[in-house]
Amino acid sequence: MSKVIIGLVGQIASGKDITKKYIIQKYGAESVKFSQILRDILIRLDVPASRENISALSFSVRQIFGEDIFAKVITRDVKTFKSNIVVVDGVRRMEDIEFLKNLPEFSLVSVDALPEIRYQRMKIRNENPGDAEKTFEEFLKQQLLETEMTIAGVMKEAQYQLTNNTTLEDFKRDIDSLMVELQEK
Q1: Does 185 fall in a domain?
Q2: Of 145, 122, 131, which is closest to residue 50 (Cα–Cα)?
Q3: Could you tell me the CATH number of the domain that includes residue 82?
Q4: Which residues pair with 88 in a beta bridge?
Q5: E strands present in 10-145
Q6: What is the crossing angle of helices 16-27 and 168-184, to 10°?
Q7: What is the Cα Rg of the chain in Å?
Q8: 3-class state of residue 152 by DSSP
Q9: SS3 state at 7
Q10: How would you write the pLDDT of the chain (185 residues) with one tens digit per residue?
Q11: What is the pLDDT of residue 1?
Q12: How many CA atoms lie within 13 A of 133 on its CB side?
């Protein structure tokens, strides 16, 4: 089997993390997440890893070191993984895939779900400080953060689409179908 590199792009709580975890568990993939670099820095600085702080740090780092700084690091990391399947989680802007798209094994996959469903999932998972207490209006406002604004445009560039509006079982079947297609590519 040839190498498969999957870039996941999607709005907040669309199902990217479920997709990644399922592919890791079922297919033995390795993964890397764009925001993990930023979370690591914030943790080291003893600053809360809120979506707002991650966004502000991302903006600052990219302003100083270039829009493609994270893409360079992620692409370098991906090349070192031993697994035949690698999942790159949290693609947000075209610069994020600037180097990855030059790898013949790379495919961009968009993960989408209705806003109301994504809101409920965000509250339940409570990934970032304060997520469980956010109102629907605050949730929608988060999509106006600089780090979230370009996601819809990148989703349009995806070669593959997953829709996550129904049951987890249905979604896993869709992921399995996608994996068959990607492994035959």
Answers
A1: no
A2: 131
A3: 3.40.50.300
A4: 7, 32
A5: 30-33, 85-91, 106-112
A6: 60
A7: 16
A8: helix
A9: strand
A10: 679 999 999 999 999 999 999 999 999 999 999 889 999 999 999 999 988 899 899 999 999 999 999 999 999 999 999 999 999 999 999 999 989 999 999 999 999 999 999 999 999 998 887 888 999 999 998 888 777 889 999 999 999 999 999 999 999 999 999 999 999 88
A11: 60
A12: 3
Structure tokens at 183: 């492994």
User: What 3-state DSSP class applies to 28?
Assistant: coil
Coil/strand/helix, residue 181: helix
Measured CA to CA, the distance from residue 125 to residue 99 in angstroms comes to 31
> In terms of Cα–Cα distance, which of 132, 146, 170 is closest to 13?
132
Q: How many domains does the chain have?
A: 1
Token pair 């798209």: residue: 101
Contact of 111 with 16, CB cutoff 8 Å: yes
